[in-house]
Amino acid sequence: MFQARFAAVAAVFLAGAISFGAIPTGAAPNPDAAAYSNCEKACLACAKACAACHKHCLAMVKSGDKGHAVSAALSADCLDVCTLTAKVISRKGPLTSVVCDACMKACDACGEECGKSPNMAPMAECKKACNACSAACRALIGT
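User: That's the sequence. What structure does it adopt?
Assistant: Structure tokens below.
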């Protein structure tokens, strides 16, 4: 189920990027290997934190706290985007800049939402991981 959902998210993302002309030729950044490695690690750590946050938020929603529905949805989307970004970064693909930009935006949105519940450990960890991932993506693509 996860693989099918991931493939669907990736396909929609890439179709949108292509249709809006967001994929310039030669889009892969050219920083050193450490920047790629740092960003890939940050994306994977963020995906892990988002998975834990998503599980936590779903449990909160099921227990009647509907206020966590937005963070459940954002953490699921951020998980998928971070996983895709880590895969593209690992091969230094030509879409690295595009997926890193999307990853920054997903992490910024997810981190902001999770920051609204700093006393809940999974959400605090998610915010921290999202901030680190967004910063690593910015450093990689130079924005």
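The chain has a mean pLDDT of 85.
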